[in-house]
Amino acid sequence: MDCREARRAMDDLLDGALMDSEALDEHAAACGECRGELGRLRALDAAVAASVAYAPEEHGLERMTAEVLDEIEVRRPVALWAKVTALAAAAVVIFCGGLWSGRAAWPTERVVERVVEVPKVVEKLVPVTVVEEREVVREVPVVRTRVVYRDRVVRVDATGQAPRRHAEEPVKAEEVVRDLGRVELVDAMPMPVRIGAEGT
Amino acid sequence: MGHEDRELARRCREGDTAAYTELMRRHRRMVFGIVYAILGCPEEAEDVAQEAFVRAYRAIGRYDPRFAFATWVRRIAVNRAISRLKGRERTREVERAAGRLTVTREEEPEEHVVAGDLTQRVRAAIETLPTNQRVAITLFGLEGMTLAETAEAIGCSVGAVKSHLHRARGKLADQLSDHLTGD
Questions:
Q1: Closest CA–CA distance from residue B135 to any residue of chain A (Å)
Q2: Residue A148: pLDDT band with limits 50, 70, 90
Q3: Those residues with Cβ within 8 angstroms of residue B78's Cβ, 6 or more apart along the chain or in another chain
Q4: Is the confidence at residue A77, as pLDDT, over 70?
Q5: pLDDT, tens only, A84-114
Q6: What is d(CA A8, CA A23) in angstroms, rounded to the nearest whole number?
Q7: Which of the two ends of chain A, N or C, has the fewest CB atoms closer than 10 A to its terminal CB?
Q8: How far apart are CA A148 and CA A191, in angstroms?
Q9: Which chain B positions have a beta carbon within 8 Å of A44's beta carbon?
């Protein structure tokens, strides 16, 4: 075994994985450097073991256990039926406790009846209908225009357009007025009327 | 004990807190020991052990009775302790970044290796190791822990644990060379 192999064997020895340490022991006996290294590593392992060992006190462990139980009990969801049952049981206990302790334990009360007349106030809601009359006058201008064009009466509708003559375009009222010179408003009854240029 | 633990765990799943109390009484010393080994502070170890038992209760439905209850709860305890360690490291990083810590990690061994016996020096030196190496060397250093049990508790392979142990021993030996005497 050489020093490199011995170093590897030292790790196995410290790891608890070295089945047979005879070869290592022989090398360490012959090699001062490896012997020293093996000794340091053993001392280190022992020091590590001592540094991680800790014996907690029993009351510290009990305290830890109690705190764990507090935490898991507080956060444990309680079924609704369990809560209702617990409340009902508590109510029964309280009631039974009252009965068992006897009426003498209950404070006695003297009840005095007194007739008090309370004024009666009746409010009646009567629906009231309010009628508001308004007169609405709507003035609708009615325009009747009758234009006499020469010896023919041409009725002009509200748009100012005359019906077609001879399949021509309808004549607008203002054009008829220009042609005639004047327009005489007559009622709607068609009547043949002769109108002169100056108007008579 | 294993069969009784399984029966108690079964009753716990049905909400029997008395059964869980008994399980805690059986394993609390082991859990506390593991957490203390990793963290090095008794008060913090008590907090984290409590946290581990609360978590184990909440997760009792996921406990597989084919495995020992002790193995299962030990794994939870190690995870909580590692989580606390990483939280501590993050806090130190934040404080360092904020300028509230003026020493670097490399300078810490000299700052923290105070005069005292070898155990205190070793504990201070362990504080300087990376998390994986620290957890491996402290768990394995506990009485009765084997390579396989350490690997199971950490959740890695035996080969990985051996590697962490080898590196951790090398660093500790370098830091404490003046204080270690060979046979």
A1: 11
A2: low
A3: B34, B38, B135, B139, B153, B154, B155
A4: no
A5: 666 777 677 677 666 666 555 555 566 666 7
A6: 12
A7: C
A8: 9
A9: 122, 169, 172-173, 176, 180
Per-residue pLDDT of B117-162, as tens digits, reads 788 889 999 999 999 999 999 999 998 899 999 999 999 999 999 9
Give the minimum alpha-carbon distance from A68 to chain B in angstroms, rounded to a whole number.
Answer: 6
End-to-end CA separation in angstroms for chain B: 40
Task: Compute the half-sphere exposure of residue B116: CA atoms within 13 Å on the CB side of its CA.
Answer: 11
- Taking CB atoms and an 8 Å limit, are B182 and A56 in contact across chains? no
Question: d(Cα B136, Cα B154) in Å, to the nearest integer?
Answer: 8
CB within 8 Å: B28 and A49 = no
Give the β-pairing of A152-155 and A146-149. antiparallel
Amino acid code (one letter) for B83? S
* Both tokens assigned to A15: 């790891």
pTM check: above 0.90: no
